[in-house]
TrEMBL record:
This is ABC-2 transporter permease. Keywords: Membrane, Transmembrane, Transmembrane helix. InterPro entries: ABC2_memb-like. The chain crosses the membrane at residues 12-29, 77-98, 118-138, 150-169, 189-211. It comes from Desulforamulus aquiferis. It comes from the Bacteria. The keyword Transmembrane helix applies. It holds the Pfam family ABC2_membrane_5.
Amino acid sequence: MYYLILKDLLIQKKIIALSIAYVIFFIIAMQGTGFVMYATAITALTYMLVMTSCAYDEKNRSDLMLNSLPLKRTSIVIAKYISIFVYVVMGTIAYVLTTTVIYLTGLPIKYSPVSLEGFIGGLLSICIINCIYLPCFFKFGYQKSRILNFLLFFSFFFGITSVVNYLFVNREAAWAQGIKSYFQTYTDGQILILVIGLIICMLTASLILSIKIYKNKDL
């Protein structure tokens, strides 16, 4: 399984090398959004790497090669899901390096440091978008899933920006205060446990579905 993850990293080495450039773009594009900046940057970067690895797999007919080796199809699927977290770590390192350079050089760019809220929010977004995409990839392949790729990516990117702006503008509205009051009845620890539980449930359901699809797939 280690070599499957390494394969995905090696075929994307040029894109990974440009990860800081992508992070800079999202920092500039998400000025003034607080912890959402990190969450958006890490989600977009992770999803892009997942999609690229899937595209290379289909282009190079990796399915045929991998299934000719003594590998279980379950291991191939699990490796894709583990790769998500490898990309999260890499993206976080790129984000920290970028914001550190901005701080040390005094560039007039507003940025938000990595926080627990941003990390959990980013992880939740990453899981939602990839838990939808990966089963579709294993079922239909990369080319047939391109429309879904487009819809997921731009719905997420523009959707989260619109939601944040809308909530900020209407933060004094009665319904917004009601939502705020509801969540204030829970401690930070309880909310954290709830979100982590939701992430685990989504990943488990998506992984089981992907394994079932891939096991029954004719190559």
